[in-house]
Amino acid sequence: MGPSGSGKTTLLNLIGGLDTPTAGTIAVDGQRIDQLGAGDLARWRAATVGFVFQFYNLLPVLSAQRNVELPLLLTSLSAGERRRRALIALTLVGLADRAGHKPKELSGGQEQRVAIARAIVSDPTLLVCDEPTGDLDRATAHEIMLLLQMLNREHGKTIVMVTHDPKAAEYAQRSMHLDKGTLAPAAATA
Amino acid sequence: MIHLVWAQLFRKKTRTVLTLLSVIIAFLLFGLLQAVQVAFESGADAADARRLLTTARYSIIEPLPMAHARVIERVPGVVGVASADWFGAKYQNESNAFAVFAVDPARYLDMYPEFRVPAAQREAFEATRTGAIAGRRLVERYGWTVGQKLPIASEIHAKTDGSLNWEFDLVGVLDAEDPAVQANTDMVLINVAYFDEARQSGRGKTGWYIVRIADSSQSRAISAEIDRMFANSPDETKTQPEKEFAIGFARQIGDIGALVTRILIAVFFTILLLTGNTMAQAIRERIPELAVLKTVGFSDRVVTLLVLGEALLLLALGAALGMLTAVSVLPALNGKTGGRFPPLFVDAETWLLAALITLALALVVGLPPAIRVGRLRIVDALAGHR
To answer: Residue B238's pLDDT band (boundaries 50, 70, 90)?
Structure first.
């Protein structure tokens, strides 16, 4: 957590390998990702990290299932196997019956579930979530946080989440505050 | 990946369809104009380097004495001579016009070994004074059958009774394997022995000579020698290699090649601007989406190729549909020319050229946005900075 402009998203981008530091080092799970070239970093992201954004960032021209399949296009899996895994991921987030729907045919909460399914379909160890409930109402935000909690507790996903919302932060096992570039520990709440 | 490129391409259906239509029209025009150019050049393409054409010195419509044949035959290096005379034919009505040549059957067909006539039909043509053979495409167009009477009216030659209506016996069908040669078979050949005897005027004269020589490298010298033989006579000649004659004949209408090239440059330049603008706009709108692809692990190179693939797909689809439309309308156009124009067709070279133009356009149109997207920083793009 932290105030606007404190660098939360920048930190998240660095951890997720979306940005590279101008100074210092970044190690994720022991791997120095600041030393990776652009191609290797892309491969590392594909294998290791799943991303969930505040505004879902789904491709509007693709169905929910095709959106979820996107990370799998980089693998050697057959079309059938990609489809099967995408459906499993959608089932996990409770949206198997919406597989053929385009994003504009889904509610905000459903879109975020599809985004979560896309984030987990390649079975990454780390989920990076940037304000995942920032665009949702209270009830839907609660559902999304329960889903992320389930992924953490039952599927062993490490989740690094940035939020403004103290309610969302209550689901975290460990909270940190970032202010003016300084990361300060906060009390565990969940 | 193809479905991804396809889906992205049709993100804004109206815009893509309109752009696609303009590409289709451009390639339709390309297919048709190239067919015209190919048709005009088909005579030159089918030309044999060992054939010369001897016409009257100042105009092809001036007849030459048939006696010239014996003189030309004696020129060193000449191995065969055939003559042909323009008949000027109409069949049934004014619009059904095609070429009819009065020839010595054996000499003429020997001169063009690329023409295919079944041996029995060739023998019948040689033996029948009123005999005629017709190109396969004409036979199919008018539903003729071998053995039938062929009533043909001449625009030039009257019979001794003053009538312009002639009747021949169709004894054979002329064909060729090479499409460029086949384009030159839309004609009817009649026996000059009968024609010359039955016409009211112009007896003992012919239109031009086809001269076969032993060595193509000697064509200039032999041409000069033939013309020298008739210099200062009432019937001076102009002899030139068949290819030169064909090109010169086609250019009587105009330099079709240059004309077609200029039109197509204008057309494709317009397409370049149009598709370039469409692609740039389409990519600009999708920068955050392309950043999402990079986020989930697509490398810079893959995203670059996706954008390039989109440009290629748009142009290839338009090119294929445009060329196929050209191929499908050409038979109808050929039917309407009534044989006054060489048959139009899209040859393999035109397809290859279309493919190369498509590729070049895709690179010019697709590379700038593709490279830009490839270099895009994910965090900037996700933040909405372009």
So the answer is: very high
pLDDT band at A189 (very low <50, low <70, confident <90, very high): very low
Confidence of residue B386 (pLDDT cuts 50, 70, 90): very low
Question: pLDDT per residue over A7-62, tens digit each?
Answer: 888 888 899 888 888 888 999 888 898 888 888 988 899 889 999 988 888 999 89
Q: How far is CA A30 from CA A25, A26, A44, B2, B166, in A?
A: 11, 9, 13, 37, 99
| B296/A118 CB distance under 8 A | yes
Query: Cβ distance B71 to B158 under 8 Å?
Result: no
Q: Name the nearest CA neighbour of A95 among A75, A120, A77.
A: A120
Task: Quote the tokens at residue A18.
Answer: 């979306």
pLDDT digits (tens, 9 = 90+) for B71-109: 999 999 999 999 999 988 888 877 777 889 999 999 999
Comparing CA positions, the residue from B355, B375, B379 lying closest to residue B307 is B375
* Neighbour-count burial for B30-47, b at 16+ CB within 10 Å, e otherwise: bbbbbbbbbbbbbbbbbb
Q: Nearest residue on chain B to A59, judged by CA atoms?
A: B289
Q: Inspect the interface and report whether the beta carbons of B296 and A59 lie closer than 8 Å.
A: no
Q: Which residue of A has its CA nearest to B7?
A: A61
Classify each residue of A167-184 as buried b or exposed e, where b means 16 or more C-beta atoms within 10 Å of its C-beta.
ebbebbeebbebeeeeee
Please report residues of B whose CB lies closer than 8 A to that of A18: 295, 378-379, 382
pLDDT at B226 over 90: yes
What residue spans define the domains of chain B? 2-43+254-382, 59-235
Closest to B189 measured CA to CA, from B152, B161, B160, B162: B152
DSSP, collapsed to helix, strand or coil, labels residue B25 as helix
Span between the terminal Cα atoms of chain A, in Å: 15
* Cβ–Cβ contact B285 with A under 8 A: no
Write out A19-34 in H/E/C secondary structure.
CCCCCCCCEECCEEHH
pLDDT digits (tens, 9 = 90+) for B113-156: 889 999 999 999 999 999 999 998 889 888 999 999 999 999 88
Chain A residue closest in CA terms to B6: A61
Residue whose pair of structure tokens reads 């491969």 in the numeric block: A43
Number of residues in chain A: 190
Q: For B23-37, write each residue's pLDDT tens digit.
A: 999 999 999 988 888
Task: Name the amino acid, one letter, at B350.
Answer: T
Q: Which CATH superfamily is domain A8-185 in?
A: P-loop containing nucleotide triphosphate hydrolases (3.40.50.300)
Where b means 16+ CB within 10 Å and e means fewer, B199-233 reads: beeeeebbbbbbbbbeeeeebeebbebbbebbeee
Measure Cα distances from A58 to B130, B360, B378 in Å.
Answer: 80, 33, 15
B332 in reach of chain A (CB within 8 A): no
**Disruptive mutation site among B295, B302, B377 for chain A (greatest number of A CBs within 10 Å):** B295
**Confidence (pLDDT) at B210:** 94
- In whole angstroms, give the CA distance from residue B118 to residue B132: 14
Contact list in A for residue B11 (CB cut-off 8 A) is 60-61
pTM of the complete model? 0.66
